[in-house]
Design goal:
Number of helices: 10
Distance between the termini: 29 Å
Strand order of the largest sheet: 1-8-7-2-6-3
Order of helices and strands: HHEEHEEHEHHEHHEHEH
Radius of gyration: 20 Å
Length: 305
């Protein structure tokens, strides 16, 4: 009976947190959309930059409100390591391994209101996600539509269109510090995907360097530093529902950072084989070190058991 009651209570807890987050999202959307609309209709660059900062500030406080509210019911132990001292006056690209939707709250826990608010590159279809689609539009997240090689052969005019759209979206917030997030694996890690890929890494999928190269081609001249973020779940990869149930005892986030060198964004990844090879080698070096770090954390977990 006791086990059953605890199970029921965990689901009630998760439901309450989900309702609170939804209510706060609805409340936060009103000023967020108002500031975004003002930025859209008033053709004064200085005013638009001011509105962009207002939008980001509202988003940061929305995250803080959710952390404060949900924190009464959800209390994982945050084990944050490495060089995570950041500045709100600098722009960053965060290169992160991807295992779960819990990765997003983990990033926000470490960097919200410490680094500039996150900017994600999203699939165009996500604009239709209820509530969040509007928020992503207000935050000027680039909405991308990827084209297959076959489509590009039939319609060569589509080549480079995503890059143009991304640059245009980034121009709207030029001069406003930002943190661009990239998940080079392109999908969440699972043992099945790892086997199917025959990944050369023990704890990671093979990175797709093209995605990072695409982001840096659009905004590399605005980025000051690279945040190499490794997320590790000692008790197994959780779902978002398990986080809401308060069933994620500990989350480790390890951060390395270093300057972004011009050689990493001054080149044509698609058309220049030499630049592509150098860029892929750079991403692979990051991934090898990340894999070693996860292995060290895994051995540490075993020693503590």
């Amino acid at each position: 009976m006791g086990t059953m009651l605890r199970e029921i209570f965990s689901h009630v807890r998760a439901f309450l947190v989900a309702v609170m987050v939804t209510v706060l999202t609805v409340i936060g959307l009103v000023p967020l959309l108002l500031a975004a609309l003002l930025k859209l209709v008033v053709p004064i660059p200085a005013f638009r930059r001011f509105c962009a900062k207002v939008v980001l500030t509202i988003a940061e406080w929305w995250v803080e409100a959710n952390r404060a509210t949900a924190g009464r019911l959800i209390r994982p132990h945050w084990d944050i390591r490495g060089d995570y001292e950041v500045s709100r006056d600098r722009s960053y690209i965060a290169i992160v391994n991807h295992q779960s939707w819990v990765d997003i709250p983990a990033l926000l826990e470490v960097f919200n209101r410490r680094a500039p608010f996150f900017k994600f590159f999203l699939k165009q279809e996500l604009i239709w996600v209820p509530l969040l689609g509007l928020a992503w539009w207000a935050l000027d997240y680039p909405m991308l539509k990827r084209y297959s090689k076959e489509t590009l052969k039939k319609h060569p005019g589509l080549k480079g269109r995503d890059l143009e759209k991304t640059r245009a979206a980034c121009e709207k917030t030029r001069g406003v510090p930002q943190t661009v997030v990239s998940f080079p694996e392109g999908t969440r890690f699972t043992p099945e995907k790892h086997r199917r890929q025959d990944s050369p890494y023990r704890h990671l999928l093979t990175p797709r360097a093209g995605g990072v190269a695409f982001a840096l081609a659009a905004i590399g001249d605005q980025i000051d530093r690279v945040l190499d973020v490794t997320i590790h779940y000692p008790h197994g990869t959780p779902t978002m529902w398990q986080l809401l149930q308060n069933r994620v005892p500990r989350i480790v986030v390890y951060v390395r950072q270093y300057p972004l060198e011009p050689e990493h964004f001054q080149g044509d990844y698609r058309e220049d084989p030499e630049f592509r090879a150098r860029f892929q080698a750079w991403i692979n070096d990051i991934w090898q070190e990340k894999d070693r770090q996860i292995e060290a954390l895994t051995r540490e977990d075993r020693a503590e058991q």
